[in-house]
């Protein structure tokens, strides 16, 4: 009956091996899964807009931060919810959160910020070395943080910022989260609901669209498999990008449905695809589908993640959050 579990929208692994889940829409209720048990935090009193919950970062079993549209940074610390001002404003949008070395990096409409997780009584500090303007995407990348704005991309190593000169034009038609995914060849994918682009390790920037073989105009979700291939999901199927070449999968190749809403690559060359009403499980030599509409409640898969023991976890509106077994039981 929990809103976080009955209408889950975002799954994230956090500190202490916990799995955190929250809805995409309000009310803001966050739950965690740890060592086989679910626990729900008290409901946050802040009102959030529809589809306005963008980012989730679990620090430990009792501390979690949420990034939201127009509400900014919200944290559950010491048993209560609080809003954190980013500079002089509290009513901003937070698009991305990344934890690295006991620091919470915050990508917001007001720029890039850093919060010391060992001193949560202190205010977030602005990182002025990056370009001004909204920060829409963040990625912890080895010893640095990759940050993306609407018309810039670069890496932050300590306080030193190194720009990517290949990215200098507006990337997204409107402000929204940019997903960043590194492949094993040193390249970086940038995905937005309306656009997909790639920056190779030599600094060359290119775009993918239906003319180049992509199933749709942008990327609803992305993942990289163990072989370094990047999988991109969209409204008309899933695309596998191998060395710049695109292979497309849809119902003709055995998918449950053309529309794909979530994806997860596992370690054994297995890929899970989420749909409205079902799951596709792609293994070498076989493709299985799982019908989630067999019961009285219809559900749409909103995300995948892994539990602490590596078991795939699926979040499905209407049905809740469950563990997916090797035998395709949930």
What's a concise summary of this model?
With 330 residues, the chain is mainly β. It has one helix and 31 strands.
Describe this structure in words.
There is one protein chain. The protein is mainly β and about 325 residues long. Helix content is about 0%, strand content about 45%. The chain contains 1 helix and 31 strands. The strands form 8 sheets. A 4-stranded antiparallel sheet has the order 1-2-3-4. The protein has a 4-stranded antiparallel sheet with strand order 5-6-7-8, with no helix packed on it. The protein has a 4-stranded antiparallel sheet with strand order 9-10-11-12, with no helix packed on it. A hairpin with a 4-residue loop joins strand 14 and strand 15 (about 155). The radius of gyration is 19 Å and the shape is globular. The model has no long low-confidence stretch (mean pLDDT about 85).
Structural class: mainly beta
Unreliable residue runs? none
Distance between the termini: 18 Å
Radius of gyration: 19 Å
Strand order of the largest sheet: 1-2-3-4
The mean pLDDT is: 87
Shape: globular
- What is the number of strand segments? 31
């Amino acid at each position: 009956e929990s809103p976080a579990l009955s209408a889950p929208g975002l799954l994230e692994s956090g500190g202490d091996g916990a799995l955190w889940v929250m809805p995409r829409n309000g009310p803001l209720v966050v739950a965690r899964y740890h060592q086989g048990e679910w626990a729900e935090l008290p409901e946050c009193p802040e009102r959030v807009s529809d589809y306005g919950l963008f980012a989730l970062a679990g620090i430990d079993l009792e501390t979690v931060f949420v990034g939201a549209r127009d509400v900014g940074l919200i944290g559950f610390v010491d048993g209560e919810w609080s809003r954190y001002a980013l500079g002089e404003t509290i009513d901003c949008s937070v698009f991305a959160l990344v934890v690295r070395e006991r620091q919470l990096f915050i990508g917001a409409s007001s720029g890039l910020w850093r919060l010391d997780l060992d001193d949560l009584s202190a205010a977030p500090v602005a990182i002025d070395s990056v370009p001004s303007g909204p920060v829409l995407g963040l990625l912890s990348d080895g010893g640095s943080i990759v940050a993306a704005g609407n018309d810039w991309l670069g890496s932050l190593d300590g306080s030193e910022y190194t720009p990517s000169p290949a990215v200098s034009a507006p990337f997204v038609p409107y402000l929204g989260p940019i997903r960043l995914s590194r492949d094993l060849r040193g390249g970086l994918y940038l995905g937005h609901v309306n656009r997909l682009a790639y920056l190779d390790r030599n600094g060359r920037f290119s775009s993918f669209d239906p003319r180049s073989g992509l199933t749709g105009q942008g990327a609803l979700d992305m993942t990289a498999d163990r072989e370094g291939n990047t999988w991109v999901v969209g409204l008309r199927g899933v695309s596998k990008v191998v060395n710049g070449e695109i292979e497309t999968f849809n119902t003709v190749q055995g998918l449950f449905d053309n529309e794909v809403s979530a994806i997860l690559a596992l370690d054994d060359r297995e890929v899970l695809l989420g749909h409205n009403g079902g799951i596709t499980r792609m293994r070498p030599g076989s493709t299985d589908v799982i019908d989630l509409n067999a019961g009285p409640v219809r559900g749409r898969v909103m995300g995948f993640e892994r539990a602490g023991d590596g078991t795939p976890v699926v979040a499905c509106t209407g049905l809740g959050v469950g563990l997916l077994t090797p035998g395709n039981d949930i």
